[in-house]
Amino acid sequence: EVTWANRNRLTEDAVLLDWNEPSVTPEAGQTTTIRIYNHETNALITEYADLSGVSHTFDTSDFGAAPSARITVLSARDGFDSIQGHEIVVDLTPFLPPYDLTFEVI
Questions:
Q1: 50: burial class by Cβ within 10 Å (0-12, 13-18, 19+)?
Q2: pTM for this model (two decimals)
Q3: What is the CA radius of gyration of the chain?
């Protein structure tokens, strides 16, 4: 599972929120996109687009047979991805199916 906090560039123009602050009402039309890449080959394995809310649970098949994966979380609006997202690399070799991965993106 990955979790995130929504941000709103229109309402945060005077005061920027810290990464660990609670979620705010997102900008109209804003969604979240999660991409999972094979970390060794940089090949896209899985993409979840147009997500609303503040979390997503992965299925074991989302990682394919990759020994390590790079998970990218970013926001999107009107067909444009945010310039800055968050990435984390997960080493999958110590895990045997079923994977039991839980982490938080802040």
A1: exposed
A2: 0.81
A3: 15
